[in-house]
Amino acid sequence: MSTISSLAAQVEAFLFIEGGPLSWKRLGTLLGAKEEETRTAVRELSAALDGTGLAIIETEREVALATSPQTTVAIKRAFEEQLQREIGEAGLEVLATLLYRGASRRSEIDYIRGVNTASTIRTLLGRGLIERTALDGREYVYQPTPELLAHLGVAHLEELPDYDTIRAELAAFEQSKSPFASNDGTGTGDNTGSAE
Hints:
Layout: H1 6-18, E1 22-23, H2 24-31, H3 35-49, E2 54-58, E3 62-67, H4 72-101, E4 104-105, H5 106-113, H6 118-126, E5 130-134, E6 140-144, H7 146-152, H8 163-177
Antiparallel strand pairs: 1-3, 2-3, 4-6, 5-6
Helix pairs in contact: 1-3, 2-3, 4-6
């Protein structure tokens, strides 16, 4: 790895010690830096790590140090069978929904899949593959974690296979049929479909 600035080196150290994602705000606090300085240091570290076994994974809310896309094949081979066995087809469908649709309420995931996904979501939360953010006092929004992106060997969601095509098809499906198209918080709630 090439020589990097002191701030970028600190980013690497904090992410390594954390062993998981840090929110942009928390990382900036640890660095004692403003948001733009933090993001610049992360970009610098990301460029310096290019071609190594590590990479920076970014989401809108968090940043993490993870294995690089170059190691994807070896890592997938080692963990794919275990991952599928533990989360099953239902888990893979929920993950695909969140990866291509973006942050979603459980009722929206239920609608797309046609079944109740409560138990699957609990499993995925427990595995650290998705995370939730409180939308209000009654509802959560779920989204993929940086760890999931690392498992898939991508640094950004846009790098997923056929991302634009699948995202557009999903959006068209929802606009034509979904009660959530307006995204105004009204809809069918959590009473969708049958249990898994």
